[in-house]
Specification:
Layout lengths: L2 H5 L3 H9 L5 H14 L6 E4 L1 H16 L12 E5 L26 H8 L3 E6 L33 H8 L5 E6 L5 H7 L2 E4 L18 E6 L2 H11 L29 E4 L11 H11 L8 E3 L20 H11 L6 H6 L3 H4 L4 H6 L5 H6 L3 H4 L6 H4 L5 E5 L15 H4 L4 H6 L2 E10 L2 E9 L4 H14 L11
Parallel strand pairs: 2-3, 2-4, 7-8, 7-9
Antiparallel strand pairs: 1-3, 4-6, 5-6, 5-10, 9-11, 10-11
């Protein structure tokens, strides 16, 4: 196999090659480090751990050569983690100059699970400071650039993971998603990304964070995402948000298909004005592929509440209610902006300007008074009511391609207009590649009820078979 083909080999196939001794974990580790050095200007990683990777890959190779038949499912496979995910003994910066020398003394739950499954954490991927920007730019590393067009952003906040996966810098990556931060970079970079429902992938309660944020896989094919979910999904009481039901066998259910399901399409969720209508049309065409899979397809009229609309004081997704729930479940958790503002001035000035600017926000009353009365009284559909009559909802991830680095014209509300609802409602969502629009990747979003990640994976797998995307590769080789 050529180096080019090796870069695009999925993890499930690498595992088979390791087992058959066609390739060793050490050989792949050496290849990966060489490639990461060559493509360093893409800015995929903030930190790599070459000595750790080579040592662990060497030990994994020894076990295989000794004929050990009891190998864990991710044995010898390198995986990168977003640099907001805590890893014991490995630098974790949160994209902030204030944490540039931070080396945690404990693992996150996901890190523990990955190690138990035999994976090797070899890099921490790029992100915006405290995960609070639409571009993966910070003061500790170069910006993560889109491998399809390096003038454009990789997205945020799991932008580095999107770059790494899309550019063949390891088939397995873990990102986080608090409002679209797995799905939007996945759409921008042309990969598959899964945002699990709240508590499906537990994490230890952070000192600061975002209550709606979850950990999930970013891969080049659906089977690899199922492999990762098999490793990191669990029940862990150290996270008060953990789901109490045991996760299913994601790999066993992967090829069950979607026949008999009730699948709906929406162009706008009843309220979104697209930036690029052509992308909505492209997603609509891809959604209709499900019609040939034995499903009940519909295009109902509805309007989901805007989760950002603080005026909706009785709404289940108003930000003040999310903050109250956060204080109830995680009473010691600080949001990153409040934490940054609490630092001494000599430290606060080291925080990126886009974080400092966010501290100057209108009050809830000022925001409410700025909204027209007719908007205040508009009708809306509750997401739980909608999903009583539907199993899956299809819509765009974001109605635009990746924008140029440094360009304006996109607000945070526009950026997450299609994605934020799943985070605050506790639902799960995925970005599935459907092709290129004017040379840039586009993702179709699939949304399912809380705890139904297996169903999402099945639907994405069915679409992957109908319209394969793995052969689409950015111009980096």
């Amino acid at each position: 196999m050529s180096d080019t083909e090796l870069a695009w080999t999925p993890a499930w196939k690498l595992r088979e090659m390791f087992t058959r001794r066609e390739l060793s974990p050490l050989e792949f580790a050496q290849f990966l480090l060489t490639r990461a050095e060559r493509l360093e200007d893409l800015g995929a990683f903030i930190t790599t751990f070459p000595e750790h990777l080579l040592a662990e890959a060497g030990a994994a190779t020894d076990r295989i050569m000794q004929g050990d038949d009891d190998l864990p499912p991710l044995h010898g496979l390198p995986v990168s983690l977003k640099d907001s995910i805590v890893t014991k003994g490995q630098r974790t910066t949160h994209g902030s100059y204030l944490f540039k020398d931070n080396v945690p003394d404990q693992d996150s739950v996901a890190s523990e699970q990955l190690k138990q499954a035999g994976a090797i954490i070899f890099a921490k991927s790029n992100l915006p400071e405290f995960e609070l920007n639409r571009r993966s730019v910070n003061l500790v590393a170069k910006e993560a650039l889109n491998p399809w067009d390096q003038r454009r952003t990789s997205g945020g906040s799991s932008g580095g993971a999107g770059v790494a996966t899309a550019a063949g810098l390891g088939p397995l990556a873990i990102g986080t998603d608090g409002g679209g931060s797995i799905r939007i970079p996945s759409s921008f970079n042309g990969i598959f990304g899964l945002q699990p429902s709240r508590g499906r992938v537990p994490d230890m309660a952070p000192a600061f964070g975002i209550f709606s944020s979850v950990l999930g896989p970013m891969t080049r094919d659906v089977c690899d995402a199922a492999l990762l979910m098999q490793a990191i999904a669990c029940v862990d009481e150290r996270d008060p948000r953990t789901r109490r039901d045991a996760p299913p066998d994601y790999l066993a259910d992967l090829d069950k298909g979607v026949a008999g399901l009730r699948v709906a399409w929406s162009a706008d969720l009843g309220r979104v004005v697209p930036d690029e209508p052509g992308i909505v049309e492209m997603c609509h065409e891809a959604a209709q592929l499900f019609r040939g899979m034995g499903i009940q397809y519909s295009e109902p009229s509805f309007r989901f509440e805007d989760p950002h609309d603080e005026l909706e004081l009785d709404g289940d997704y108003a930000k003040w209610k999310m903050a109250a729930l956060s204080r109830e479940v995680l009473p010691d958790m600080l949001d990153p902006i409040s934490w940054a503002m609490s630092q001494p001035r000599e430290d606060y000035v080291k925080v990126a300007i886009y974080i400092r600017d966010r501290s100057d926000r209108p009050t809830m009353l000022e925001y409410a008074l700025s909204i027209r009365p007719d908007v205040r009284r508009r009708a809306r559909t509750h997401i739980d009511d909608f999903f009583r009559d539907h199993d899956l909802l299809l819509c765009p991830v974001i109605a635009r391609t990746a924008f140029e680095c440094g360009s304006g014209g996109i607000t945070p509300f526009q950026y997450t207009a299609y994605t934020f609802i799943t985070n605050v409602a506790g639902y799960c969502g995925a970005s599935v590649p459907i092709g290129l629009y004017e040379g840039m990747p586009v993702g179709l979003q699939i949304i399912a009820r809380p705890g139904e990640e297996s169903l999402l994976l099945r639907a994405a797998r069915a679409l992957e078979r109908e319209r394969p995307w793995a052969q689409l590769r950015p111009p980096v080789d």
